[in-house]
Fold this protein.
Amino acid sequence: MPPQQILQAVSTPAPPQSKTPFSSPVWIVGLVIFILGNVVNFIALQFAPQSLVAPLGAVSLVTNVIIAPLLNDEKISLFDVGGIVLIIAGCVVVVVFSGIVQQDYRLCVLIQLLKAKPTVIYLCLIFALILAIYIFLWTVERGVTHYLLEHQQLGDSDTLTVVHTHETIPNQSPPATWLQKTTRSLLQNPLLLFDRHVRPISPTSRHVQYGLPLAYASLGSLMATLTTLFAKSLVNLLSVSIFDHDNQFTSFITWGILLVTAFTAASQVYWINQGLQRYDALLQVPVFYVVWTVFDIIGGGVYFNEFKMFTTVKYVLFAVGVAIIFWPKLLAKSSPTNL
């Protein structure tokens, strides 16, 4: 990415928009379709293993290739056709060699699965990765801010807004006591206490050019992983409560699962949009999809024991099917039509 674009991505606030998205009928229709699609995907978690539903999300790429020429007057290339064939072939392989497990999970069963050692390790790994990536994002963006301040590349602007943390750093601020500064920092972001230890980072460094785009996409995908994991638990609890007339919402744990699902769903949308505002969608979307799918598959195998009946042959062929699905998406950036 050119240095000018890097500076803009890290330190320039988004320009104000004169029109809201709700003023566009096409945008509203797209939003409705998006919501309905996610509702259907939510319901699908009740009828199929998580490790199967996750890679089958690639079917959306096939529909995109079919619909794009109708809406945007785009042409389908041989690369697109080949990608469709590979995705369909990969989906077939994944379905044939996927696991078949119990689908009706009551709260007592989910609690036992949650207490299992592999699940605890898996969740701790996810939370550790989320924390590490967030600290990386904050450190690199603060480092770039320090670099710009030191090299006086802020121009005539009075303030510099870091979109990621929503902090505004004034060039001149009124005197404040140490306690006031510390309290203000804690309220804005606890990591600001370590701001003095952050070294300046050049906007042309690899951390900025490659690290930040990958970090934004990965952070969104990890949030999406938690959303899928707890959404599958939630849809099973709803199913048992409605169809088996066994209310599963009498425990605070069930409501905790609901809150975690809602929070992580909103977080994944926030972080992927933050990445898309700053960097190329042709990088953000494939990384988001691949990381999300990989951790979803692992989560289904660890939390719901979806791999317990797998043989060595099934492991190998299931992995091959997932790899076939990933291949066209990872090559999309080199395509002239960008599948």
